[in-house]
Amino acid sequence: MTPIQQQSLPLVLEGKDVIAKAKTGSGKTAAFAIGMLTKINPRDFAAQSLILCPTRELSTQVATEIRRLARYQQNIKVVVLCGGQSIGPQIGSLEHGAHIIVGTPGRIKDHIRKKTLSLRRINTLVLDEADRMLDMGFYDDIQHIIGETPAKRQTLLFSATYPKQIKSLSAAFQQEPIEISVESIHSTSHIHQALYISSKEHKLVNLMRVLAHHQVDSAVIFCNTIKAVKQLCEYLRDQGLSVKALHGDLEQRDRDQVLIQFTQRSCSLLIATDVAARGLDIDDLPAVINYELPRDPEVYIHRIGRTGRAGKAGLALGLFTDAEKYKLDAIAEYQNKPIEFEAAEILNANIDFVTEPPMVSLCIAGGRKEKVRPGDILGALTGDAGIDGKAVGKITVLDYVAYVAIDRKVANKALKRLEQGKIKGRKFKIRRLR
């Protein structure tokens, strides 16, 4: 178990209220989900547990982890309720009953107002990334939602930081909570940080130098604004690189698809705003690049914490201008260690590096609602389609659609065979994502 699991899980199982300070990626989802699942009555299809999250991405990630942990129990239904998606299908899912609700405060409040969600049977309430929700101005929504739950319940509050608002939130809604604090910021000891100073006018060219010099084949590149994300994405695409943008202007369906393509290694570079800085869980991410340094040094720590997870080595690269030197000084002070930097122009930019991702994502127009499982897709590919199992990568199944990563060398063959064949005895539309 991780430190947060060791300290909080026994208390959660005892039914205590807990306020825990723990960094992103510390394993806190399992800490509250395991205890929560032990109290679920599968025969009662009323909502029994509620997890509030600040973003759609984190809500989806938490729900995925809960479903994984719930496999040992039969018929546990988890429903995600977030904005940016049509409310109709969500209402339909709720009408069929749900044990566990995961979602963002705004959309949860919408369902309460429409009387499509009742919280009268909630026995476990979780506020995940509570500090982030407060930063986003959700205090009133949270207060309203909690007012709809029974007074007798277990309330678990998880936060990466511990500002005064968190204390007042705990005082208002928890009963004699036990405080737990584990390492509050990401350990950067196994993340190699390399920062480069650049003139503003040569920053784009110097980013290409950084990518080539460090042989970056997969990375999340952070910008501070949506405008910067779009401009950088267009520039890198013009250079022949495989890039996708992730920001708040995208529809939820598009955000899901972009993240899936990146995690399936069919896209090399993900250009993102801080919507992706928390709750973005990508296995074995080799590098994070700060194209723009954030004003808040804690945000910088959260950004680079996407790499070097679970004790693995990570690479954190960054560019800054002379006018941004104060940001670098603030980050160094926050980390309590100096950060060395070099001029970007000294890097060797004449190195050829791989610009084409190793995988291609195929989209299948059928998901969980059609009883499609990853094993069904794998079986269709390795059976009648004759694709070597080693050429099949990550498979992601959502409610109405599924995605499978295929080795680029055999992607066209796999697409053709799936179009001609069947999955679980049925024909589905298949398309290749660009």
Give a verbal description of the structure.
With 434 residues, the chain is an alpha/beta fold. Helix content is 35%, strand content 19%. The protein contains 15 helices and 18 strands. It has helices at residues 3-13, 28-37, 56-69, 87-95, 105-113, 130-135, 139-147, 164-173, 203-213, 226-238, 252-263, 297-304, 325-335, 374-382, 411-420, and strands spanning 18-21, 49-52, 78-81, 100-103, 124-127, 154-159, 178-181, 191-197, 219-222, 243-246, 269-272, 287-290, 314-320, 341-343, 359-364, 392-397, 402-407, 430-432. Strands 3-4-2-5-6-1-7 form a 7-stranded parallel β-sheet, sandwiched between helices. A 7-stranded parallel β-sheet has the order 10-11-9-12-13-8-14, sandwiched between helices. The longest helix is centred in the N-terminal third of the chain and has 14 residues, at 56-69. The two termini are 39 Å apart.
SSE topology sketch:
Elements (H helix, E strand, L loop, with lengths): L2 H11 L4 E4 L6 H10 L11 E4 L3 H14 L8 E4 L5 H9 L4 E4 L1 H9 L10 E4 L2 H6 L3 H9 L6 E6 L4 H10 L4 E4 L9 E7 L5 H11 L5 E4 L3 H13 L4 E4 L5 H12 L5 E4 L14 E4 L6 H8 L9 E7 L4 H11 L5 E3 L15 E6 L9 H9 L9 E6 L4 E6 L3 H10 L9 E3 L2
Parallel strand pairs: 1-6, 1-7, 2-4, 2-5, 3-4, 5-6, 8-13, 8-14, 9-11, 9-12, 10-11, 12-13
Antiparallel strand pairs: 15-17, 15-18, 16-17
